[in-house]
Write a structure and sequence with these properties.
The structure holds two protein chains of two kinds. Chain A is mainly alpha-helical. Chain A is built from ten helices and two strands; from the N terminus they run ααααααααββαα. Chain A starts with 6 loop residues before the first helix and ends with a helix. In chain B, α1 packs parallel to α7 (146-174) and α3 (35-64) packs antiparallel against α4. The chains are: A mainly alpha, B mainly alpha.
Chain lengths: 211, 208
């Protein structure tokens, strides 16, 4: 067990959450990060789906990495990912139909999520299955983290609710408070993500200056 | 004819791939530093869209659907089949660009093969799949024939091209502005795109 959770492996798991965040630092997988975050619930489901798919496609590719001919590796990777996405999309349709309708084509678009291809190319092709699994989980969670933050802010300011429960009490509305309809529009997602990246980079810089 | 035209104009302005659906963001942000390169990528994406969406349309209606030649509902294979078509066509485009324009090939670099995983292409195919079920009599978004799918693909491609070239032009000018350090590069680009998306929202009331 101690080998499975060695220091390097912990690093593999935790660095994508912060210093190597796939969305904020490496700018991968932006498309879906913006499109599904108008509410919190689809953001959470999307984050979890991507985490699961990244982890398992990493494991599968890492297991067969020595048998894939180099020239056609991209197509092999795409097919593995597409098969996993098909499974997840069917599971969502079966057990969480409302959310899967809300996510519409963006579940299918996980196939073309750059985080997946990036991790497969950069990590799973060179490392063993267990490290790849951790790497997939780490990167998926890093992605989910950004989604949840942006989704929570947009739902809270745009609808005054979180996960569909009303947070801002009616008395506030009676006093003249109004929901910010802009927040539910696509354009605000871009601006919020820009601010998120701004805050994260400023924090990282401060940390480095202290060292 | 009228339907084709409205589909075409709508997919450029109202259902713009970038500003309404955020599709193809990765290469959009990474390659939009210079107008010439972004124009090249935009044309490549438009071309790939123009070929893949009609091919995927034919696959969806003639092979995968229940009334197709196999007589079985195979829609669950759509993801795998679409991505295989896209990857094949991108490979073809890559070879053509390398042969006829080596300078563009060098400038696009890794982003040329990455068109295969450009969400705009897969996204257009999936939206097309959804729109087949719409009723052409009531919805101007419905896609009922190969010609419709060609008009939709061309419109989406030109919309993407328009978006990337205009962002590249803004970013070329933005090089001279004084931006706070942590906001430089990516952060300010996001905010710029957000403002552009807001401007494009004016088109959403367009009735064609």
């Amino acid at each position: 067990m101690s080998k499975l959770f060695s220091k390097e492996n912990k690093e593999v798991l935790s660095s994508p959450l912060n210093v190597n965040n796939p969305v904020a630092v490496q700018v991968l997988g932006i498309c879906s990060a913006l499109a599904v975050t108008s509410q919190l619930m689809p953001a959470i489901v999307m984050g979890l789906s991507v985490t699961v798919i990244t982890a398992f496609s990493n494991v599968i590719i890492s297991l067969i990495r020595n048998t894939i001919p180099n020239r056609i590796r991209i197509i092999v990777q795409l097919v593995v990912v597409a098969a996993l996405v098909t499974i997840v999309s069917m599971l969502l349709k079966a057990f969480a139909y409302d959310v899967s309708v809300q996510l519409s084509v963006y579940v299918g678009l996980i196939i073309t999520n750059c985080i997946l291809m990036g991790r497969l190319e950069a990590f799973a092709m060179m490392n063993g299955p267990w490290e790849s699994f951790l790497d997939g989980i780490g990167n998926g969670l890093g992605y989910a983290f950004v989604l949840v933050v942006v989704g929570a802010i947009r739902e809270f300011l745009g609808n005054g609710s979180l996960l569909g429960f009303q947070i801002i009490p009616q008395s506030f509305y009676d006093m003249g408070y109004m929901n910010n309809g802009m927040m539910t529009m696509p354009a605000m997602a871009l601006i919020l993500l820009g601010c998120f990246i701004w805050a994260q980079r400023a924090a990282l810089e401060k940390k480095e200056n202290k060292k | 004819m009228e339907h084709l035209l409205s589909l075409f104009v709508r997919s450029i302005f109202v259902d713009n791939m970038i500003f309404a659906f955020f599709l193809g963001m990765c290469s959009y942000l990474a390659v939009s530093k210079n107008v010439k390169t972004s124009l090249g990528l935009g044309v490549a994406v438009t071309f790939v869209l123009l070929v893949t969406v009609p091919v995927d349309y034919l696959l969806q209606t003639k092979v995968l659907s229940e009334d197709g030649i196999l007589g079985q509902d195979l829609t669950y294979l759509a993801f795998i089949l679409f991505i295989a078509v896209i990857a094949g066509i991108v490979q073809l485009v890559e070879m053509v660009v390398e042969r006829f324009s080596p300078s563009l090939y060098a400038a696009l670099g890794i982003f040329l093969p990455l068109i295969a995983v450009n969400c705009a292409i897969m996204g257009a195919s999936l939206f097309m799949q959804q729109r087949i079920q719409m009723d052409p009599a009531t919805s101007s978004q419905a896609i009922g024939s190969v010609w419709d799918s060609i008009a939709y693909a061309l419109g989406s491609g030109i919309g993407w091209l328009l978006a990337i070239v205009s962002l590249a032009a803004i970013r070329e000018k933005m090089a001279y502005t004084n931006v706070p350090k942590p906001l430089q590069g990516l952060g300010i680009t996001f905010i710029t795109v957000g403002l552009m998306a807001m401007a494009f929202m004016c088109f959403s009331g367009l009735k064609i």
